[in-house]
Design goal:
Blueprint (H helix, E strand, L loop, with lengths): L1 H4 L6 H13 L1 H15 L4 H6 L5 H5 L4 H6 L7 H20 L8 H29 L5 H32 L4 H21 L7 H9 L6 H20 L1 H13 L2 H17 L3 H30 L1 H25 L3 H29 L5 H14 L8 H7 L4 H10 L1 H10 L1 H9 L3
Helix pairs in contact: 2-8, 2-9, 2-10, 3-8, 3-9, 3-10, 3-14, 7-8, 7-10, 8-18, 9-15, 9-17, 12-13, 13-18, 14-16, 14-20, 15-16, 15-17, 16-17, 16-20, 16-21, 17-18
Length: 434
């Protein structure tokens, strides 16, 4: 275990951590803050839940991901150039959001929320490519450590920075629209880290030539190597059956957590928690818990393997959902909320670190952004398109939050069964990269 700790001494992990912050922060803009804004305006659970459809961009970003492996911006390099461009686009959309009214401009809130999701999901493609490109090929331990650092960064953006607007909402007279000016300023500040980061050096053209074994040039060759080859290589390397098995498991694993996450802010407000309670427990406490368990989860993956990390996380995921069912019965108890948040933070950290590590190992470095986006898009599909119907489910249950959370816990079981069935395949991929 002590030798595993040495893996974290790599200075490149600081850049990976900062990019993780930038990746998690936009989820606040179109997730928690927007849900709180809509809830305070009196919109229905169904409407708030359906707003989650804007997250579909994260499920579809693999469609344009090949462009981020091929088209190099005229500044800061392939990865950083795309990252800083998308960061600027996110900040600009926040400025527009600050001028909207939830009662009169609901359409435009959805539109610019979707544009934030598109820019953020595009930024994520470049960030994931940066992380994989920065670690030496076949360095399983390095990828596991980088995954844990990236997860800690993501939750710093989502939980640490994400607590700020909730405190400001209670401590000041600022409206939710005004708070989007703060979010825009914070996004602009994150651009500084992008400028100061060093671009990883990868001879992608040589890798591509070795795979295609072709000296062809021209438009057709460009289209083939950009759009077709990255996906074909993944299926050819693993075989269609195994590749499809990996993709199905990645899709199933977090559906239960996604249903809970989409309705969590609405649940907190309906059950009686204040904005400050949400900021303190759901954001700040969850932030620190997740950072700690992200780093510990990385060590466990290095020492005991990704399969065990995923199985432990899946069992904990179901347990954390049941904790929220207890809160629905007892009312707004901050001690129970703290306990639920700690278990949920453990779950989120371990499951994300293990999943990111697995997906990273499955990628060919010649198409790191494209192949990672393909698998990651399936990982978040449950959090986006499917979980958008979570509000409809709560209404169908007549607001029975306890039963809702029990159902989300049961949603974890199919993925655990599937994980057990493909365990040997996961171990084979993992140890072939040592």
């Amino acid at each position: 275990m002590f030798s595993a700790l040495n893996t974290y001494k790599d200075k490149r992990f600081l850049s990976i951590f900062c990019f993780g912050i930038s990746s998690g922060f936009p989820w606040i803009m179109i997730g928690s803050v927007m849900s709180a804004w809509l809830a305070d305006e009196g919109l229905s659970r169904k409407t708030i839940g359906l707003f989650g459809i804007i997250f579909t961009a994260y499920s579809l970003n693999f469609l344009w991901s090949p462009l981020l492996d091929k088209l190099k911006p005229p500044f800061l390099g392939l990865r950083r150039g795309w990252i800083i461009t998308m960061q600027g686009a996110i900040a600009l959309c926040c400025l527009v959001m600050s001028q909207l009214n939830a009662q009169n401009d609901l359409y435009f809130m959805a539109l610019f929320g979707f544009l934030i999701a598109v820019a953020s999901s595009t930024q994520d493609i470049a960030i994931d490519g940066f992380r994989i490109d920065s670690i030496a090929e076949n360095d399983k331990d390095g990828l596991s450590a980088a995954s844990s650092v990236a997860t800690a960064g993501w939750w710093t953006g989502y939980g640490g920075l994400g607590a700020i607007p909730f405190f400001l909402a209670d401590l000041t007279s600022w409206s939710w629209a005004n708070l989007y000016l703060v979010l825009a300023a914070m996004m602009l500040a994150l651009m500084v880290a992008t400028i100061l980061t060093r671009e990883p050096t990868i001879d992608r053209e040589s890798m591509l030539h070795a795979i295609t074994q072709s000296d062809d040039t021209g438009v057709l060759h460009w289209l083939k190597t950009t759009v077709i080859t990255p996906f074909a290589e993944f299926f050819n390397r693993n075989g269609v059956k195994l590749a499809a098995s990996f993709l199905l498991f990645i899709f199933l694993f977090k559906i239960g957590e996604a249903f809970l996450g989409r309705m969590s802010i609405v649940f907190y407000k309906e059950i009686g928690f204040s904005n400050s309670d949400i900021g303190t427990y759901s954001k700040l406490l969850n932030w620190w818990v997740t950072i700690i368990f992200s780093l510990v989860g990385g060590l466990v993956n290095i020492r005991y393997g990704i399969y065990r990390g995923l199985m432990i996380a899946g069992v904990a995921m179901a347990a954390s959902n049941l904790m929220f069912a207890v809160i629905a019965q007892t009312g707004p108890s901050t001690s129970l909320l703290a306990a639920a948040v700690i278990i949920d933070g453990f779950t989120a950290a371990w499951s994300t670190v293990a999943m990111v590590s697995l997906i990273s190992l499955l990628c060919n470095r010649a198409f790191s952004a494209t192949q990672y986006a393909l698998m990651a898009s399936l990982s978040v599909a449950g959090r986006t398109s499917v979980a958008s119907y979570s509000g409809i489910l709560v209404d169908y249950l007549d607001g029975n939050w306890s039963l809702f959370f029990v159902i989300t816990a049961l949603m974890v079981i199919p993925s655990l069964g599937f994980l057990f069935l493909i365990r040997e395949n996961i171990k084979k991929v993992e140890y072939s990269n040592k």
